[in-house]
Give the backbone structure.
Amino acid sequence: MMDIDKIKQRILDLAIRGKLVAQDPNDEPASVLIEKIKAEKEKMIKEGKIKPSKDDSYIYKASDNCYYEKIPNGWTLVKLKEVISLKSGMDLTLSEINTNSDGIPYLTGASCFVDDGLLVNRWTNIPKTISHKNDLLITVKGTIGELAFNNIGEIHIARQIMSLTINKEIEPQFIFFYLLVNKEKIIQKNASLIPGIKRDDILNLVIALPPKEEQKRIILKINELLNIVKKISNELKAVRDLTFAIKRKTLDYFFGDNSSYKSYYPNYQIKDLCKLDKSDVLKQGLYPYLEAKVIRSKKTPEYIQKGGFIKKGTKIILVDGENSGEVMIAPCDGYLGSTFRILNANEKINDEYLMWFIEYYKKSLKSNRTGSAVPHLNKKIFYELKIPLPPINIQEVVVNKIANFFNQLDIIIS
């Protein structure tokens, strides 16, 4: 399956390296832009409008460890602080904010960053740290690295947010794309129990700056390619949705309320065919701890010395968490995660036939979970589900037909 996020990242990565559009020798070099910015800053310092910087080095000298091994002609390496001014946010007290649209918007953090835009649900009449229209906003505490332009006007920003005012000689979207492509590096650098981005983390970022005209061409090309990727993504989603509907309809044929299987064969409650058990095999030795993220290959397994042991291929079901009711298969020998139970089917039912039945009712099981803070599988509803039960040999035929058909669908999508 095509990885849309990787394609987007690759487009941005090529762009900030100067490999997305051709260089034009007639473009005014970026070093001239920096000289203009430097002259403007020196003028503002003389006029008392800004304070001098502690570090007056404008051109960043690349080192052996520099992200940019070689930059295109006309480009120059600078620290981000030379082309932006950065404002840190400040929290307000409850008495200083309101929900009545009185005053200017007050943004508190990542929850206000929605679909590349800003969500406003609080206001203040006592603003203290104000971001202005067209500033680039970034979340720096809690959920860090969210980006959005201030397309509203004057906004008070809380301490979870910083505001970048980009010099008029620089195309704002180029800085946006630069930060977007470096987002994961910034997040990883600040990974901790309490994640946060410091001012210097932003100010000292090194950027390879193209000529202004090339910045414009790069932005146009990025937007053009991202629009194409978005269309492809929408088409893939439509295919996935159609595939899901076809699979759902297939399972409906065997397990739905109007299924001929349900009317022709006897129906049994799940409680008569299987039990949800913890592992009764207590073992010692170094094995992986099998939790949901590990089985989905989204996390490297932790190896522990003892626990409830299960073998590779064991059918297990999530009984705690958002995805309660989802059946998985142990990818290797290991210790059963605490949110799982073993799906112990008796001799009357093929365990894969049971898995497909539970898959059909997964959405219903999810909507009927118990618990609030931590959702749990509603075992009463689970055990009372009725399943049509043909002879074992017919169950095996059904399992093979479903598996073969679904495999063909997946091959077509891939």
User: Anything to note?
Assistant: The longest strand covers residues 282-290. The chain is about 35% helix and 20% strand. Confidence is low (pLDDT under 50) at residues 57-67.
